[in-house]
Design goal:
This protein is of the alpha/beta class and 301 residues long. The protein has helices at residues 26-37, 55-65, 86-106, 139-154, 174-182, 201-211, 230-237, 268-274, 281-290, 293-299; strands at 17-21, 41-45, 69-72, 111-116, 158-163, 166-167, 187-191, 195-196, 199-200, 218-221, 228-229, 244-248. Bound molecules: NADP nicotinamide-adenine-dinucleotide phosphate.
């Protein structure tokens, strides 16, 4: 049976030198202090310091730093915009990831690639397992899958970590948008027919930190625990505030990219591997909402 573990008191037995790509992004900024707290040496590289689409730069950085692991959180993440600039999405998420995988493979450095629930088509009625068939509906999802395939093609030692509906300090995200809009309007309209799991970058970082010391390579699903839809999620965000959240259907809020209707991920493999349960999404959200500016700064870069 999985055991509970207090991640905040956790000291990693095996400290590593870890390169984080996309370190200026929402997840990258949460991952860096989390890994440092566990006494890993973190070389946090934002896009300005490592452009993954530049193979020579990727190779020379890895040759120079000689990390024990690369956590690849850099990505093109503009889901709707990707529909009108597919070349750029594939260039960063497909070709950029292939660059990293080839260079890391040559130097025998393992890679943790952060992927997405959008690799699935959302037609299932039960949580997607790691061995369920992928069929992305959007350019973004297809480009993330291209990254997964590159990692599997070029590396023997890799983790692919699919996550979903991310929010966290220092990133443009649904929680902050709804919180801001609740202060400006009396009524919000939010889609209720897309089902998934919100995930805080702070809890995801702790999960990734647990996973990387296992050396159990493979594909994992990592989200906070539970199932909801965007409407319920919004209601939880504004709980106690004087604002009405009205459920609408996806067809009433057309967007360029098609999202999966259902993208709940089965986390059984992850839970057995890291030996602890995951945080319910409502708890992670309340902890995030309770953070003030100083708290957010302390937990992210
Ligand atoms: N956000 C979500 O809801 C979500 C859900 C599932 C999975 N994911 C995955 O989780 C990971 C982290 O996402 P996030 O939410 O932290 O996204 P983010 O805030 O957009 O961070 C991605 C970072 O990558 C950088 N980047 C873009 N092109 C690059 C390049 N060529 N070389 C190096 N860095 C580059 C971006 O810089 P610029 O901003 O300056 O371009 C940004 O700082 C990504 O792999 C994403 O696909 C995200």
């Amino acid at each position: 049976m999985a055991q509970k573990q207090d991640a905040s008191n956790y000291t990693s037995e095996r400290q590593m030198k870890i390169v984080v790509t996309g370190a200026g992004g929402m997840l990258g900024r949460a991952l860096t202090p989390c890994l440092e707290k566990r006494r890993h040496e973190v070389i946090a590289l934002p896009k300005e310091e490592l452009d993954v689409t530049n193979f020579a730069e990727v190779r020379s950085t890895l040759q120079k730093v000689k990390p024990d692991l690369v956590i690849h959180s850099a990505a093109y993440t503009k889901v709707d915009q990707a529909e009108s600039e597919p070349g750029l999405a594939y260039f960063i998420n497909g070709y950029g990831t292939e660059n990293l995988a080839v260079a890391a493979g040559d130097l025998d450095i393992p890679v943790l690639y952060v992927s997405s629930d959008y690799v699935f088509d959302g037609e299932q009625k039960q949580p997607y397992t790691t061995w369920d068939k992928t069929r992305p509906l959007s350019i973004y999802g297809k480009s993330k899958l291209a990254g997964e395939e590159a990692v599997q093609r070029h590396l023997n030692r890799f983790y692919i970590v699919r996550t979903s509906w991310l929010y966290g300090p220092h990133g443009s995200n649904f929680v902050d948008t709804i919180t801001r809009m609740a202060g400006e309007r009396k009524q919000l309209r939010v889609v209720s027919d897309q089902v998934g799991t919100p995930t805080c970058t702070l809890t995801l970082s702790e999960v990734i930190a647990d996973l990387i010391v296992t050396n159990r390579w493979g594909v994992y699903h990592a989200t906070d625990e539970g199932v909801t839809n965007w409407w319920e999620f919004a209601r939880e965000i504004v709980k106690g505030k004087d604002v009405e959240v009205v459920p609408i259907e996806t067809k009433d809020f057309p967007r360029p990219a098609t999202r999966p209707k259902y993208s709940v991920l089965d986390k059984t493999t992850l839970i057995s591997t890291i030996g602890r349960e995951l945080t319910p999404w409502q708890d992670a959200l309340q902890r995030y909402l309770a953070l003030n500016v100083e708290g957010k700064k302390a937990l992210s870069r």
